[in-house]
Amino acid sequence: MQLPDNDKLNFIVGIHVTFDQAITGGLVALHKLAYKLAETGHNVFVFCQPEFPHENIKIIKSQDNTLNNLKTEKTWETFYYPINKTISIYPQIIKGNPYNTQHVSRWILYHTEKHIEEMYGDNDVYFNFGNFKTFKSVLKRKLTVFNYYFDKLYIVNNENRKGFCHLLHKNTPPNGHEIFKYFNSFDLGGWKTSGAFDYLREQFNKYEYFLTYDQKSFFTIAAVLCGCKAIILNPGPSWEENQNAFNLSEDYGKQITSIEYRLNNPTQMFGIAYGLDDISWANKTIDLAPDYLKELQIIDDKTVKEFVEFWENKIGLS
Asked: Does some domain include residue 302?
């Protein structure tokens, strides 16, 4: 495939998987970013069917090749590109520069791992989804793309809510299941195969509270959009963060207050309790969440505009 050589930029977004194959917050963000970049008029290339189609998004054909019973390797058709007008966008988990482009953006969608970050290029440009930690000291440029699913997640009925529900995701301690038993909490773990977002909407409209150990979760946002207050359990540094604290800044891994948490995680501002002793905040602010998140979406769109302007200026298209 020959990528266009015109007055537009070529963004190669590292997406190889559709929602049918897997659905995670990072994958949703990558698909949404491809669409947002396409909306700016530049060329966008992905390696699978885009979840948010746009005329400016093109597919580079790819496939999985089986290496052995435990491992597969992704390969793609050869493509050629104008070297100075093409930028690869990799999530933080990608090693090296597999698309072999001169310009590279690292999108930090979660805390980096040292052995992977050591394989980044010296001139790679970091863009952070939020306030995730990196081992290298780099300029903090923002790039936040969220699919809030306003069309799927909303309040159907605020009456007769009761009880607790939960999801196991990140940061669950070894004895973390015990609190779910204590609250007789309903497990939403089968949501992907039970109707996906339609199922989440149905369940979150039944329950008063949603429990999670994940401090940076889309599911807390999904809950409050449906009128279900969210509680982040065991607030403080995760086990993973404590393990890495000595490699990062001296503040990393320390306990923070609920106010500090919300300031560092704007999407978790309203309707969400940072610990069981913060429930009154969630109760008082739940009604503010939907309109506030719609305002955040406007701010998110501004970070995409600034991302594109950065590369236009660097490459000399502006």
From this structure: no
pLDDT value of residue 23: 76
Strand boundaries in the chain, DSSP class E = 10-13, 43-46, 57-59, 62-66, 72-76, 86-91, 103-108, 125-128, 164-166, 186-187, 209-212, 229-232, 272-274
Residue 126 identity (one-letter amino acid) = Y
Taking a C-beta distance cutoff of 8 angstroms, is the pair 97, 115 a contact? no
Beta bridge partners of 133: none
User: Can you give the pTM of this predicted structure?
Assistant: 0.79
Domain that holds residue 82: 10-147
Residue 142 lies in a domain: yes
Residues 169, 189: contact at Cβ < 8 Å?
no
Cα within 13 Å of Cα(258), Cβ side:
18
Looking only at the bridges linking them, the beta strands covering 62-66 and 164-166 are unpaired
**Same domain (yes/no): 194, 288:** yes
Same domain, 170 and 141: no
Task: Give bridge partners of residue 104 from the DSSP assignment.
Answer: 88
Model confidence over 268-279: pLDDT tens digits? Answer: 999 999 999 999
Q: What is the pLDDT of residues 8-37, one digit of tens each?
A: 999 999 999 998 888 788 898 999 999 999
**Same domain flag for 102 and 175:** no
